[in-house]
């Protein structure tokens, strides 16, 4: 029998531990990104952090939110998805801001939606030829503002998720949220479709470590990878998977949680195998 702490609030040891576990689930996922955020802010160098991590987590947590309308899983898991999305937007905002501040010149803007774009020497950034003149610092009288229209139909996959302004990332996610919400509303009664949404949500998050694993394998080195980051990933994923199993979360959650732990352990194994290997020549380029 649980020890009663307070008759007024009916608090028990089990209830307190449950609330602490829920709080850890909500906040624990964002903790690995706190030191990364502080490092980028302190060094003003975002090149060691891949924004594709933010993309994967934004898509995964957005799909998880949609899945909640079909299977009302525990509220802390829903809140965690919202908190993680906010955290990823903060990371993107900082990286984009630092990159723009570090840029010598902004002769070519890459945006997602229709916006005013700065061009140099009166030439549109889209139509401007790729010559050595772009590397020269333009004078203030040569810099003009032109309306270079960018539509979704003009989408260039080479610059996907490599836009030069924060608004473009926000615009893209707004489109994803709008389309996803409409599809979810229409397909909500279709059980197999919503189950697939739940699986895609946790599978996308589970495969977060795959690009890092492949990069380490290709370079035969783990140089430039934060060992502390992977340790925190592993601890968090083990806790998260255990939480899913003990709290009887949908099967998609804990199966993909086990996959995520397996990837974390594989990356840690790479650290041991490649510990004596030198840094690859391209390590200074970042991701």
Automatic annotation (TrEMBL):
Keyword Glycoprotein: no
Membrane topology qualifier: Multi-pass membrane protein
InterPro entries in the record: PQ-loop_rpt, SLC66/Scramblase_ANY1
GO biological process: phospholipid translocation; retrograde transport, endosome to Golgi
Localization of this protein: Membrane
An annotated GO cellular component: membrane
SMART domains: CTNS
Keyword Membrane applies: yes
Ranges of compositional bias, category Polar residues: 127-142
TM spans (from-to): 16-37, 49-69, 75-96, 168-186, 192-214, 226-245, 251-274
Region (Disordered): 123-142
Keywords: Membrane, Repeat, Transmembrane, Transmembrane helix
PANTHER family the record matches: PQ-LOOP REPEAT-CONTAINING PROTEIN 1, PQ-LOOP REPEAT-CONTAINING PROTEIN 1-LIKE PROTEIN
Protein name: Solute carrier family 66 member 2
């Amino acid at each position: 029998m649980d020890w009663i702490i307070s008759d007024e609030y009916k608090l028990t040891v089990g209830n307190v531990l449950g609330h602490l576990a829920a709080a850890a689930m909500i906040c624990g996922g964002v903790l690995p990104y706190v030191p990364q955020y502080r490092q980028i802010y302190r060094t003003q160098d975002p090149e060691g952090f891949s924004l594709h991590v933010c993309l994967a987590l934004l898509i995964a947590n957005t799909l998880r939110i949609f899945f909640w309308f079909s299977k009302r899983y525990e509220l802390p898991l829903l809140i965690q998805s919202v908190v993680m999305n906010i955290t990823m937007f903060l990371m993107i905002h900082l990286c984009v801001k630092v990159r723009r501040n570090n840029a010598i010149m902004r002769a070519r803007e890459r945006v997602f939606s229709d916006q005013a774009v700065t061009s140099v020497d009166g030439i549109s950034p889209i139509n401007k030829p790729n010559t050595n003149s772009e590397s020269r610092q333009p004078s203030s009288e040569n810099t003009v503002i032109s309306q270079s229209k960018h539509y979704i139909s003009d989408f260039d996959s080479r610059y996907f998720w490599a836009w030069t302004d924060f608004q473009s990332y926000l615009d893209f996610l707004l489109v994803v949220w709008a389309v996803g919400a409409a599809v979810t509303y229409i397909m909500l009664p279709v059980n197999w479709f919503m189950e697939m949404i739940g699986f895609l949500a946790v599978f996308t998050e589970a495969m977060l470590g795959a690009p890092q694993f492949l990069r380490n394998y290709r370079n035969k080195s783990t140089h430039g990878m934060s060992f502390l980051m992977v340790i925190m990933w592993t601890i968090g994923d083990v806790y998260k998977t255990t939480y899913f199993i003990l709290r009887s979360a949908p099967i998609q959650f804990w199966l993909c949680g086990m996959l995520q732990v397996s990837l974390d352990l594989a990356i840690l194994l790479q650290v041991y195998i490649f510990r004596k290997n030198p840094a690859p020549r391209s390590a200074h380029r970042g991701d």
